[in-house]
């Protein structure tokens, strides 16, 4: 059993720091929570797209959706549109919806493949939020039970941290402005206190390292090794720039367009468009990457592009002694599926119950936490690699290399299970369910080699009718919804 954690100190006031402080203060009212941040250093200021789990966090924190959207210039996100990933000129959606039965005689994708009939449209037309996205429609959910689809948000990352900060301070979090310049260690190697540039010291029992890429405690102080994923995910730079809205409706989805040596994101916020070009410097120099980004903006840039450098991977352990790393301090996978904020939330979702159950978590709890976080990084890594390794593009070195690279065993097994038997294998700690995996396989034109004989229980005519009906129903449901702009305006006026 370790020593009791009563005083929690959060280092860093970016998205991770303020999410952690707000959640900890809400869930653990008997603890003291203090956050130290440095305006001089600032926050990374990117991270505009999220995952539906964020709505659970907001529910637990009692956040009102309209207030949050107003404060963060937020919009709704139904998923991601991938352009040019398999070959140039093609696109597909990965949205937060379901694609019917995934196995058995009613297996939707199985019948779709078996019929192989162009008049049925795309598999995406069998998924309600993909239809909504392609039509630019949006509507909130009548209830959280039996929901026909799920959704997330886009927001301004800097405004989100400010929004959470206000909430955290209301919930009793103490904020200290200051730069941490040194760390006082405990005899067992843990952290006893943080020394600030002005001479003050912050003592604590548990330290949450949310210091961003500098990983002040987990990396610089405790030297926890970094597990490098860059041989699978070679992107290591991003240019980010906001641009003027282009006068068209705000898209209720993120767009990810594959480019020569990476991909570009486009995110509609209510006041501007967020853009970025994530690329591998091994294949493209920074200046050309900047030009490629600026060339494909829909509107005038509103600032000078900003360059960010990173390495994909994670700390071997995210919880070491009395330090838990969250956010960029614990690791980073490229932002293709908007999973960083989700991983912060997931870390908190596992940490908080441990702290609620035991005032002094021991080695077993810490190991369990670390295993879980490692698995999540690995599962999401595999899912992101899937977007690359199935490409049919051979027009530049990056695409040729990712199409032939050796895959992690866990992913190779999944690809084998899908190709041989049409099985969407799921491991423990998956971040993405089988419907998401199917959306990428289908979007990339990657199908099993054989049809399941069980599908013969339905005649071709019956299967065709079922698919046509589902497609027509979703088209009608989406067409009856307001446009995303109109719905958002209504919510913001509440
Ligand atoms: C190009 C790019 C695009 C991204 N897009 C997405 C996305 O779409 N969706 C998503 O979920 N995530 C995305 N992310 C990740 C996302 O930006 C982060 O997960 C999120 O913003 C959390 O950042 P953070 O709080 O860990 O770090 P930061 O925002 O960097 O905050 C670090 C904090 O630590 C403080 N600090 C550092 N050193 C000290 C010190 N010595 N003393 C005191 N304070 C200190 C800083 O002042 C700051 O307050 C993206 C990341 C990149 C690089």
UniProtKB/TrEMBL annotation:
Domain of life, per the record? Bacteria
Gene Ontology MF terms in the entry = monooxygenase activity; nucleotide binding
| Active site as annotated | 77
* InterPro entries according to UniProt: FAD/NAD-bd_sf, Flavin-dep_Halogenase_NPB, Flavin_halogenase, Trp_halogen
Listed binding positions for FAD are: 13-16, 180, 328, 337, 341
Q: Where does 7-chloro-L-tryptophan bind?
A: 77
Keyword tags: FAD, Flavoprotein, Nucleotide-binding
Keyword set includes Flavoprotein = yes
TM annotation in the entry = none
Record's Pfam families? Answer: Trp_halogenase (PF04820)
Q: Which Gene3D superfamilies match?
A: FAD/NAD(P)-binding domain
Write down the PANTHER family for this protein, in alphabetical order. FAD-BINDING PROTEIN (PTHR43747), FLAVIN-DEPENDENT TRYPTOPHAN HALOGENASE (PTHR43747:SF4)
Query: Would you tell me the protein name for this molecule?
Result: Tryptophan halogenase
Organism of origin:
Duganella radicis
């Amino acid at each position: 059993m370790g020593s009791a954690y009563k005083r929690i100190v959060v280092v860093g006031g970016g998205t991770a720091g303020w999410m952690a402080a707000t959640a900890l203060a809400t869930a653990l009212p008997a603890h003291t929570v203090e956050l130290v941040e440095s305006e001089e250093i600032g926050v990374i200021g990117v991270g505009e797209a999220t995952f539906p789990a964020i709505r659970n966090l907001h529910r637990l924190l009692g956040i009102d959706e309209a207030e949050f959207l107003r404060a963060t210039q937020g919009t709704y996100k139904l998923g991601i549109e991938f352009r040019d990933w398999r070959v140039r000129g093609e696109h597909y959606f990965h949205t937060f919806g379901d694609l019917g039965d995934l196995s058995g005689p009613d297996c939707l994708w199985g019948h779709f493949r078996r019929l192989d009939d162009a008049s049925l449209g795309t598999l995406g037309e069998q998924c309600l939020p993909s239809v909504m996205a392609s039509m630019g429609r949006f509507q909130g959910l009548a209830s959280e039970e039996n929901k026909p689809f799920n959704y997330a948000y886009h927001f301004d990352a800097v405004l989100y941290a400010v929004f959470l900060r206000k909430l955290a301070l209301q919930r009793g979090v103490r904020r200290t402005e200051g730069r941490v310049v040194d760390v006082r260690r405990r005899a067992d190697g843990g952290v006893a206190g943080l020394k600030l540039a002005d001479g003050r010291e912050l003592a604590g029992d548990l330290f949450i390292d949310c210091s961003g890429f500098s990983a002040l405690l987990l990396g610089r102080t405790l030297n926890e090794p970094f597990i490098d994923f860059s041989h699978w995910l070679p992107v290591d730079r991003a240019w980010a720039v906001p641009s003027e809205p282009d006068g068209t409706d705000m898209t209720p989805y993120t767009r990810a367009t594959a480019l020569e040596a990476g991909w570009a994101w486009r995110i509609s916020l209510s006041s501007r468009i967020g853009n970025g070009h994530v690329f591998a410097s091994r294949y493209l120099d920074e200046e050309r990457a900047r030009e490629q980004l600026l060339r494909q903006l829909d509107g005038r840039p509103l600032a000078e592009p900003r360059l960010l450098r990173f390495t994909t991977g994670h700390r071997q352990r995210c919880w070491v002694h009395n330090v838990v790393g969250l956010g960029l301090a614990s690791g980073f996978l490229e932002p293709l599926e908007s999973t960083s904020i989700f991983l912060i939330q997931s870390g908190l979702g596992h940490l908080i119950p441990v702290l609620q159950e035991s005032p002094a978590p021991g080695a077993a709890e810490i190991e369990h936490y670390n295993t879980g976080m490692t698995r999540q990084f690995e599962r999401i890594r595999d899912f992101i690699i899937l977007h690359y390794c199935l490409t049919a593009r051979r027009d530049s070195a990056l695409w040729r290399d990712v199409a032939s690279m050796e895959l992690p065993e866990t992913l190779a097994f999944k690809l084998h299970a899908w190709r041989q038997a049409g099985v969407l294998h799921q491991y423990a700690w998956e971040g993405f369910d089988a419907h998401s995996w199917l959306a990428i396989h289908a979007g990339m034109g990657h199908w099993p080699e054989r049809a399941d004989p069980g599908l013969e229980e339905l005649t071709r005519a019956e299967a065709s009718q079922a698919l046509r009906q589902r497609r027509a129903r979703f088209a009608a449901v989406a067409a009856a919804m307001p446009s995303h702009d109109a719905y958002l305006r209504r919510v913001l006026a509440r």
